[in-house]
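Example record for the data management plan.
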Amino acid sequence: MKNDKGTHKAAVSRRDFMYGAGTAFAALTIIPSHVLGRAGRIPPSETIQVAGIGIGGVGSGQIQSISRQANTKIVALCDVDDVYAKKTYDNFPKARRYRDFREMLRVEDDKIDAVYCGTPDHSHAVITLAALRKGKHVCCVKPLTRTIHESRRVVEEAQKAKVATQVTASANSTEKGCRTCEMIWGGAIGDVREVHIWSNRPLWPQGMLRPPGSDPVPDTFDWDMWIGPAQMRPFKNEWPDDHLALKQLWSRRPRKAVYHPWNFRGWWDFGTGALGDMGCHYFNIPKRALKLGHPVGVSATASRVMPETAPLASIVTWEFPAREGMPPLKAVWYDGGLKPPRPSELEPGRNLPGESVLYVGDKGKMLGTRIIPEEKMEAYTPPPKTLQRRGGTWPEWAEAMRGGLPATCQFSWAGPLSEIVLLGNIALRTGKHLKWDGENMRFTNNSDANKYVKESYRSGWSL
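Corresponding structural encoding:
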């Protein structure tokens, strides 16, 4: 049955019918593979039944991408905002609807194979853990979690569940990702001792104070469920037109929301700032190409540092030890319009792009997959293509669910990837140079910084 908002209080549903490959319509009942005792692996001939949680923002397009995979069906949708989720609800009118992900997982337990999580960062851990404990395949938007402790717990649970997992960081298995690895491993620029990574984010307000007062919560929006495990605060709808939070982004058509939709990213309680949003994308190829594990140190500098929000602009530096035949490495992140110094190797009139990666080696520099200057790239003989090129986020996840190769950004990879950016955020919040013991998940020179490794939840929420 549905309540007056169209969401489920209880669910009674029959399996949807499917088209058999190359056959006419057949009235076949589709049973999730875990019910049939196949350890969750789904044969190509059977339809993957997917539930989506958080489907109003980036989730809207990503749910569409999932639905386009062969023999994949979106059967249940969950969101706390009826208005924001309407587009997705309209695109999948037969999907059963929910407000509370816990109810959806309980009611749909024997009807779904996989769960997509597209919610704000602060609820990733509680949702992915709940789905993993139900034995579901899980795909989560990046970053995997908001804290390092959450990341470790999610990775541990995924290993126990033995299901197919994926995070939506830009794939390192594409032509670009594989070519970068082959060139660096082949010595194209010698030993790499520095990597510089930059983004044009944020595209949302950062460096602001919490607005005073409160606004009425719309009937179409569940503020308490949106807050989830974070500490409760009054609901505020939009920033005033003349507020600094919007003026600082005047040229980027900012959204006026204080927290939801979209602008959660700038608040430490809910998001992970520009570094958390884009760092997982841009670190994913360097992590593979440079074989990055735990850094041993991290420090940061930033503009307009506020206690509750990420800064307007930042530079973060990580120190990685020697690893697998590679020398110690300095990795530097820039955001808020900042970039590394212009390399002298760039041709006159050529500038650094708005977002990219610069590798600095003993024998030269690479901007993305191109050695600079261009004449040096033209004289270079690329190495053989030895790495397997794969289809990207959605095909990889679908392949893994059907028992094929694991996704390249499965949780065991994405957890450490997320930790790199989360360490950078802790350096931003403390303003200190931090020494990191990755194996024991603690800072060795600053006890105050350890409070950000594991943060408390509000009453009623836990991992």
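Summary line stored alongside the record: The radius of gyration is 23 Å.
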